[in-house]
Design brief:
With 433 residues, the protein is mainly alpha-helical. The chain has one domain: Orthogonal Bundle (Ammonium transporter fold). 65% of the residues lie in helices and 0% in strands. The longest helix has 32 residues. It starts with a helix and ends with a helix. 53% of the residues are buried.
């Protein structure tokens, strides 16, 4: 039966996760140059529109309706049968084995996961990808990559059916976005100034505020993944406080050892890394192990962030490090330190169950490959249909004016000067400046 308390918490969690995409837009916007602020934010806003529509039309059905080991069917296409009764899916029950929230609430909650994952990938290609090409990519990726991996990890596909544990999205959200971002960066190519001059974040306050909003929303992201007001939700909620705090401290130490300066951008990145690390493990490990995870996940992610600028890969906002590598770490951590005493499901290797580690390794060995290859092929296909990136001149002027006709800051650059006798066609074309 429907439980009103569980339903209320899931409605709040859904709103919190949707807020995360706005926080991500602010986080990303602060990391780019000022001339690309609006375009970067708009990619996240566009993800809300595109992913919501594709999710309602077909993505949700492919992820969660009964189908094959690889992908779901079309039972829920066009939201058919998505109403007020609980979802009929054995993988989505509360701690007591009951289904207590309306199917429609479950649909909306899962939609917000798809939305933010699409938005995350944009961080690899900001400051140079054409806005129209990104919209087409977002639509195709949300169906052909996200929905498939959500089925594998959540909806009854081969990983979850085989015993792989993923509490809130290490598979479909974190590893998928991180390794898709790497593929996108390789296909779209580097910014024209990359490697020639320092490209610095233009507003560290935006970055910190965005990270704070993301951490706030993550309590719904992880806490809501228990699908009720139950022990798993409480455990995940508490762990979502503990892990990022420990990651932040470790990042402080690593920054200090490297350059003796503790940076704001580094602190914001650390918050995200900690939240990502606990996402797959939140409901499966004890609070003490969650703190250990927080310290541990900082090390490989910090190393990738520090090393990546030395390469020719312009993966602009380090989505691979902050999401892909942190997601891999969280998934594997479950295999070692899951405790049935806390989660009621399974132990990890340290507590006598080596098979769980093998299940987790299987996910790490397959999900990044699928995400990378499919994203690479999708972008190559889109590249045959339309240009993927702006011209060198457009990139120099900035994506804000080129694609939105607006500026984040009133500098006056690019303002349109209109004489009374200017033909309207020239005004619309923007030729009188």
């Amino acid at each position: 039966m429907i439980d009103t308390g569980d339903t209320a918490w899931m409605l709040v969690s859904t709103a919190l996760v949707l807020l995360m995409t706005v926080g991500l837009g602010l986080f990303y916007a602060g990391l780019v140059r000022s001339k690309n602020t609006l375009n970067t934010f708009m990619m996240c806003i566009a993800a809300i529109a595109v992913a919501t529509v594709t999710w309602a039309l077909v993505g949700y059905s492919l992820a969660f309706s009964e189908g094959s080991w690889f992908i779901g069917g079309l039972d829920y296409a066009l939201m058919n049968g998505v109403m007020f009764d609980p979802i009929d899916n054995p993988f989505f029950v509360d701690a007591d084995g009951a289904q207590t929230i309306p199917h429609l609430v479950f649909f909306a909650f899962q939609a917000t996961f798809c939305i933010i994952t699409v938005a995350l990938v944009s961080g690899a290609v900001v400051e140079r990808m054409r806005f129209g090409a990104f919209l087409l990519f977002a639509a195709l990726w949300s169906v052909l990559v996200y929905a498939v991996l959500a089925h594998w990890g959540f909806g009854g596909g081969w990983l979850v059916a085989g015993g792989t544990l993923d509490f809130a999205g290490g598979i479909a959200v974190e590893m998928a976005s991180g390794f898709s971002a790497l593929a996108a960066a390789l296909v779209v190519g580097a910014r024209k100034d990359y490697g020639r001059q320092a490209i610095l974040p233009h507003n560290a306050v935006y970055v910190l505020l965005g990270a704070g909003l993301l951490w706030f929303g993550w309590f719904g992201f992880n806490g809501g993944s228990g699908f009720g007001t139950n022990n798993l939700s409480v455990l995940a909620f508490a762990n979502t406080l503990l892990t990022p705090a420990c990651t932040l401290l470790m990042w402080f130490l690593l920054d200090h050892l490297r350059g003796r300066r503790i940076t704001a951008v580094g602190a914001a990145t650390a918050i995200i890394v900690g939240c990502v690390g606990i996402t797959p493990a939140g409901g499966f490990i004890s609070p003490i192990w969650a703190m250990v995870l927080g310290f541990g996940v900082a090390i490989p992610c910090w190393a990738v962030v520090a090393f990546r600028p030395r390469t020719r890969v312009d993966e602009t906002l380090d989505v691979l490090a902050a999401h892909g590598i942190a997601g891999v770490t969280g998934i594997l951590f479950i295999g070692f330190f899951a405790q049935a005493e806390w989660n009621g499901l399974a132990d990890g290797l340290v507590f006598g169950n080596p098979g769980q580690l093998l299940d987790q390794v299987l996910a790490v060995a397959t999900v990044p490959v699928y995400a990378f290859v499919m994203t690479y092929l999708l972008l190559r296909l889109i590249g045959f249909l339309m240009p993927l990136r702006a011209s060198s001149q457009e990139e120099g002027q900035g994506m804000d004016l080129i694609y939105h006709g607006e500026e984040a800051y009133a500098t006056g650059e690019g303002a349109i000067l209109i004489r009374p006798d200017t033909p309207i066609e020239e005004v619309l074309a923007g030729t009188k400046r």
